[in-house]
Amino acid sequence: MFTDESRFALEPDDKRIRIGREQRTRNQSQNATEHHHAFRGGNIMVWAGISLRYRTDLHILKRGPLTDVRYLDEVLEPIVRLYAAAVGPTFVLMDDNARTHRADIVDDYLESEGIVRMAWPAYSPKLNPIENLWDALGRAVSLHFPPSATLIELETAQQEEWRLLNSAVVDHLIENMITRCKLYIQMRGGIPDPINVFFSFYAVYVSSMPLSDAYKNLILFPFLYIIIDFVAFYIFVLNFWK
Question: How far is 136 from 139, CA to CA, in rounded Å?
């Protein structure tokens, strides 16, 4: 399951710098001032997880910053643990390398529950398919009319639009992870051609097997975790030799 947090502002940063001057002053450069209105009106942090043919509800993280204790109490214990138990031994959790996620208390909890965590390359948010959904969610909420005037209205709009997201889009993002990994590796300098060819051949071979989608996923997606492990190791080697 691919997971992540994101923050949405009531009045997001429009990246514009406004130039103004006080009334009854001359239109001269020394009277001009710059104004940059960024993220006014408060913001909301949310968490969610996605996997093939399933996504969690959008969880609103209230009451300040997300700490390791809150991550355990509000996300891992009530949501991830139950989903992992339902999936069984093939469940693998993807969360990024944020300090909150890698705290000792979190590591100990996942180990005690037998939850396997996917290795993840550092500084690679665009590798996570849920990032595309955050963009889609933000665009959908911004189209609401009238726009959200309070944080409660923003929260309601987010949860409504999250439920309306097309499940086929979610599945496509996850099924496209092998291509995403290959492109990411190429952006970081490329990999030897034989490995690249092997990745492509394996994906095509599994897709052509006369099996149901469920069985194909059991074969294909454990291999995806190996690819991501390879990406993490490859980036480590690149950074080591710099």
Answer: 5
66-91: per-residue pLDDT in tens?
999 999 999 999 999 999 999 888 89
* CATH numeric code, 1-8+42-210: 3.30.420.10
> What's the predicted TM-score (pTM) here?
0.69
Length of the chain: 242
Instruction: Give the Cα separation of 72 and 66 in Å (integer).
Output: 10
Q: Where are the domains of the chain?
A: 1-8+42-210, 214-241
| Phi, psi of 212, deg, nearest 5 | -70, 165
Q: Is 51 exposed, middle or buried (0-12, 13-18, 19+ CB in 10 A)?
A: buried
Output the six-digit token pair for 172: 């496509």
CA 20 – CA 32 distance, rounded (Å): 6
How far apart are alpha carbons 14 and 33 in whole angstroms?
A: 18
